[in-house]
Structure formats: C-alpha cells, structure tokens
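Re: beginner question about structure tokens

> Can someone show what the tokenized structure looks like for a real chain? I only ever see the sequence side.

Sure, here's an example I had lying around. Input first:
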Amino acid sequence: MQARNCTLVAPNEYELSGFLRGRLGSAHAMRVPHPVGARIVVLDERLVRVDIAAHEWGEALPFAAPPAGRVATDPRAALQTLTLPRTALRPWAPAHLKAWRVAGGDVEISWVRCARVGGDYWGAGEPPLGASAESYRLEVLDGSDVVRALNVASPSFLYSTADQTADFGVLPGSLHFRVAQIGDSGATGLNSELTITL
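And the corresponding structure tokens:
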C-alpha cells in the first residue's frame, strides 16, 4: 500500500489518504476491511532485499537482524533460520480481468499482465514481459470445478459458443475464471479471479 498524502496530525501520529493498494505484486494479500487501529509497518529504503542464489531456495538459511547501524555479529541481533519458497520468482497475478459476450455468443476474455521488473512506468502500452516467452494458464470454473483449462500465449482468449456449450450444456449467463502467468521455470504465478454476469 502507498499513500499519496501523509500528514503529521499529532506527535507520532499521521493521517494517511489517497491510498494505492496492491503495489509490487501484493494484490493477492489485500484483505477488506482492515480494522481501525491496525498496525502499519513502513517499508522504506532501509528495507533491503536479500539476494538468494538459485541453489538456496528451499534450504534452511540463517538470518541476523542487528539493531540499526550495527553489524550482524552484534550480540543484540535477532537470529532466525528461515526456509524461503520461490515466491520472489513467481510472476505476479494479472490485473484488469474482463469478459464480455460478443456477436454470435462467443465470450472475449482479457487481462493485463503485471511486470515484476521494470513495470512502474504508467504510460501507454503493455508492461514489460519479464520472461523469455509470454504464457498464461487460464481456467474456467463451474462452481469449484474446473471445466476448461488451457495455456494461452497472449493476454486474451475467445471462448467460443461451442466450447461454452460443451462445458456447461448451455451458454452460461455468468462466467467464473482465473488466470495466472507462467514463468520461465514453467511454474504458474499467482492467480487473479473474476466472476462476471455476461
């Protein structure tokens, strides 16, 4: 979350407004509503990303968090051993999922990828791909059952009337689908889901 305005209203008390939520791939972790008085942790330039080598993912690694300005061997450092998943390598969840029925009954499904690297540019055009090839996993659901699953090479898919009828028996009045980008490792990233009346 980022705030456009941060105003000091009392000693150690700020009023935040103009929120921008779900930044840097965190949309999947957003919960609504946050309770009044919820703790906020400020992430600024003092937060440093740990460089993890490819062979270290999934291994137990020792970490030390010393007091500000101190070295890791400081006796007051907090010590912990963590096993990190490959979360930082997964593609972020796509955004702006849409679906609409077009002439003839087909359904056009589209989304916009979110770039893990170099995606802060807000101008026109697509965000950077950040992978050697563009690929997505699209799943159409009927309740909790996946009725169609396929990989597509662009951020859109035309769901034909024939496929809809094969999947649902009739043309559905609403559609529930989810999509995730596939990374270079072949693993899917985080899902975005949409249920929409057609």
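Each token stands for a local structural state, so reading them left to right follows the chain. Helices lie at 161-168.
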